[in-house]
Design a protein that fits this description.
By secondary structure, the chain is an alpha+beta fold. The protein has nine helices and twelve strands. It has one domain. The chain starts with a helix and ends with a strand. This is Lipoprotein.
C-alpha cells in the first residue's frame, strides 16, 4: 500500500470514530529517551470492518503490518513540499525521524497506529504534536495529521522539561490563535466525535516519583511510571488541564 494512501486511511479512521490516544514518554538516566503517540481505532473496525474492507479493496484482504519513516513519505511528496514556505518546510523536517507503525486486521477487528521517535533531551519535543498539524498543508491523500483532523492543533504551545529533580508538562493557550479560529459545523462535528474519545499520558522515569500535581495520576508498582487519563475534549478545548509536575525522590 502506498504510504500516503495508508495515511489517508488513518485520517479517515481517526475522524469517523472514537479512539484512544496514548502519549508515551520514556526517559533514561542521561535524559535521553523515546516519545510516541499511539492511536487505537479498533472500535471502528469492530463496528464497520466489512464496509472498510470494501473501501480498501485488495489492501484489506490481508493483514497490514507496516513500518516506515516520515523521511520516506517526504521523499514521495518532495515536489509538493518544495512549493511550501521555508518555515513550513522547516516544521516538517522536525518529523523526519518519526517512525510510523500500523497494524490493521479486518478479521481481528484491529487498527493500531504508533508514531514514535528517539530524543537526546526531552526539550527537543517542544510543540512536536502541533507540528503534526502541518500535514494539512501537503497536497492530496490525508489532508491533516495522520492521527486525525485537528490532532495537535489545539491552540496551545506544549513544552516538556526534565532536570532529574522535576518533570513538567505544560501547554500554554495561544489566545490570539484561539480568537482567530473559525466557528464552523466541521468543528462541531469533530467535537461530537471526540466527545467519546480518550487521551492518556503514560510517562516512565529512571527515578522513583515522590509526588505528582495531578491527583488522578496512577502509579506503577515501582513508582517510576504514571498514567493519567483525560477526555479528548479536554485535550482539544482545555489543553492546559493536562498540565502537571512530577517530583522525584532524592
Amino acid at each position: 500500500m502506498r504510504l500516503y494512501k495508508l495515511l489517508g486511511f488513518c485520517f479517515l479512521v481517526a475522524t469517523l470514530t472514537s479512539c484512544t490516544f496514548t502519549e508515551n514518554i520514556y526517559i533514561n538516566d542521561n535524559g535521553s529517551g523515546k516519545f510516541s503517540v499511539d492511536m487505537d481505532g479498533s472500535s471502528l473496525m469492530e463496528m464497520a470492518g466489512d464496509q472498510i474492507a470494501g473501501q480498501m479493496g485488495d489492501d484489506a484482504k490481508k493483514d497490514i503490518d507496516s513500518t516506515f519513516t516520515f523521511k520516506q513519505l517526504f521523499e514521495q511528496k518532495k515536489d509538493s513540499i518544495a512549493k511550501l514556505s521555508p518555515e513550513t518546510q522547516k516544521e516538517l523536517k522536525k518529523l523526519e525521524n518519526f517512525v510510523v507503525t500500523t497494524k490493521m486486521s479486518s478479521a481481528k477487528k484491529q487498527f493500531l497506529m504508533t508514531l514514535g521517535t528517539d530524543f537526546k533531551n526531552v526539550n527537543e519535543l517542544q510543540d512536536i504534536l502541533q507540528t503534526l498539524s502541518t500535514f494539512q498543508k501537503l497536497e492530496g491523500g490525508a489532508n491533516a495529521s495522520p492521527l486525525g483532523s485537528g490532532f495537535g492543533d489545539n491552540n496551545s504551545k506544549l513544552s516538556y522539561t526534565y532536570d532529574g529533580k522535576k518533570f513538567t508538562r505544560k501547554a500554554t493557550i495561544d489566545q490570539q490563535k484561539l480568537a482567530a479560529k473559525p466557528k464552523d459545523s466541521a468543528a462541531d462535528m469533530s467535537k461530537m466525535v471526540f466527545a467519546s474519545s480518550s487521551y492518556v499520558v503514560k510517562y516512565h522515569f529512571p527515578k522513583k516519583i515522590k509526588k505528582v500535581s495531578n491527583p488522578n495520576a496512577l502509579f506503577s508498582d515501582d513508582r517510576k511510571s504514571i498514567t493519567i487519563q483525560y477526555t479528548f475534549t479536554d485535550y482539544m478545548e482545555n489543553p492546559d488541564k493536562l498540565n502537571f509536575d512530577v517530583e522525584f525522590e532524592k
